[in-house]
Design a protein that fits this description.
The protein is α/β, with parallel strands linked by helices and 222 residues long. It contains 7 helices and 9 strands. The chain has a 7-stranded mixed sheet with strand order 5-4-3-6-7-9-8, sandwiched between helices. It has a two-stranded antiparallel ribbon with strand order 1-2. Helix 2 runs parallel beside helix 3 and helix 3 runs parallel beside helix 4.
Length: 222
């Protein structure tokens, strides 16, 4: 039951080849859809003439896959990736330097802390995140339980929403008016996260689906 990515040491994300390391979350196809929404939003801001290029922040970046994809697919974007875990942060630095050298700033910090990137509050165009969100006791397969780091899986609380809700609050502070939050979540968390977004000042909140048609991500406009 060892994942193929662990055996080969490689994993793929939106056309990018990434190193698959122990202690780092293995990328999933559904997250490619989440990244795509953020990429399209960044492209729209480039087309709209965003001064200096759109500023995109990837919270809980893990391997750096989303941040690297944004930088690779939207060359005008300024990208900052935030990760707490030592192993994942090191992987993110290497991933981003390989695919977008010098164009992604990786910050090791608690993504939900108000002090993290506080100097950017009110100035970010897009916040994208695939945070830990698994509800307690809800792992679906042996591979995930055995090979993905627990820090990258469980969102806190019985419903897994402690960290996601905290990140909604942090994104509300980081984004400027009309800025966009894109957050991956469990299929059963859509309503709760829409309500959380509206409660902290987002004016629009909707749920997007993954490739299987399951509710998979929050799309909220500041």
């Amino acid at each position: 039951r060892e994942p193929l990515q662990r055996i080969t040491g490689r994993m793929f994300f939106r056309g990018l080849e990434l190193e698959c390391r122990p202690g780092v979350f293995i990328v999933r196809p559904e997250t490619e859809v989440v990244a795509g929404v953020a990429i399209e939003a960044a492209r729209a801001r480039v087309a709209g003439g965003a001064a200096g290029g759109p500023l995109v922040v990837d919270l809980c970046t893990g391997s750096g896959a989303i941040a690297a994809a944004v930088a690779a697919e939207v060359p005008a974007a300024r990208v900052i990736a935030v990760e707490l875990a030592d192993e994942a942060c090191a992987a993110a630095v290497d991933t981003c330097e390989w695919h977008a050298p010098g164009r992604v700033r990786v910050v090791q910090a608690d993504a939900a802390a108000p002090s993290t990137l506080a100097g950017l509050d009110g100035s970010v165009d897009v916040v994208v995140t695939n945070p830990p969100y698994v509800p307690a006791g809800a792992l679906e397969d042996v591979e995930t339980a055995s090979y993905d780091p627990r820090l990258a899986l469980f969102g806190g609380g019985e419903d897994g929403l402690d960290l996601p809700v905290a990140l909604v609050r942090r994104a509300a502070a980081l984004l400027h008016d009309d800025g966009l939050l894109v957050m991956e979540h469990d299929a059963g968390q859509g309503r709760a996260l829409r309500e959380a977004a509206l409660a902290v000042g987002f004016r629009e909140a909707s749920t997007g689906q993954d490739l299987t048609g399951r509710d998979r991500f929050l799309r909220a406009v500041r």
